[in-house]
Amino acid sequence: xxxxxxxxxxxxxxxxxxxxxxxxxxxxxxxxxxxxxxxxxxxxxxxxxxxxxxxxxxxxxxxxxxxxxxxxxxxxxxxxxxxxxxxxxxxxxxxxxxxxxxxxxxxxxxxxxxxxxxxxxxxxxxxxxxxxxxxxxx
Length: 138
Hints:
The chain is of the alpha+beta class. The chain has three helices and seven strands; from the N terminus they run βαβββαβαββ. It has a domain of about 100 residues: Gcn5-related N-acetyltransferase (GNAT) (Aminopeptidase). The termini are far apart.
């Protein structure tokens, strides 16, 4: 398997995979978030191809990650786990105490496998069901 590398990227580079994987029914110009300018964005590259993205937002000692997307052609290869481990280490080095996300219900088993706990806080947005999940890392 070709080696995967993870590096910080500009927020605009996340939009392609956000749209392709998470919101295929929406337009590319809808992919930008108001918070993108205050976030830290990471891309997973297989060779020179962007195959995964994740965005991280800090609020004091809490870090929220959002918009995790892995290209369908490279799903189930451990890329999502690599990105999650990468941002966990990054957040820890920045003083993070709690890492959290609003997980799609279909992704809950993935986050449970990585030590996240369900909070019971659920909501629906844009026709998708979510639950807030968290992990204390410090």
